[in-house]
Specification:
alpha+beta; 3 helices; globular
Length: 146
């Protein structure tokens, strides 16, 4: 059995705006979805080449968000984005939003790759997928041995 590649984590800093705060004094839950979308697209723009960025777009198919702790206006948040796998025209992501070492929210999402010109689903070429950086191998600095 061939083991799926483990892709490297991508970090996306989040700036909380006053308009993100709801009547309860914390970030409105709907705002997290916006952050997840921006973080995943930041991953795409950070690692895909210019030709791929011009040729393909991403459409969210599914998001599942688990809210762990409230976030507030002055919090410094970072979204850690992990590409879990690419299968045909779909990419599966996990995004964890943290305040320091504390998990504020976790999201799993599925995205559909579409051709920019036709707006039809498209398989992401293997050459583009190969451009996403892989995580360190087991035993390398920062990796635990399982």
């Amino acid at each position: 059995m061939i083991e799926a590649p483990r892709y490297a984590m991508h970090e996306y800093p989040i700036a909380i705006r006053p308009t993100d705060i709801d009547a309860l004094g914390h970030v409105n839950n709907a705002v997290y979805l916006e952050w997840v979308q921006k973080a995943v697209l930041s991953h795409w723009h950070a690692f895909a080449d210019a030709d791929a960025i011009a040729a393909f777009r991403w459409v969210a198919v599914r998001h599942e968000i688990t809210y762990r702790k409230p976030a507030f206006l002055d919090d410094g948040l970072v979204a850690s984005v992990l590409l879990e796998r690419v299968r045909r025209e779909s990419a599966y992501y996990e995004t964890v939003i943290r305040r320091g070492g504390e998990c504020v929210a976790e999201a799993r999402s599925r995205w559909c790759c579409i051709e920019a010109d036709t707006k039809r689903p498209a398989r992401l070429p293997d050459t583009v997928i190969a451009g996403f950086p892989l995580a360190c191998t087991a035993g390398a600095p920062g990796q635990s041995r399982s």
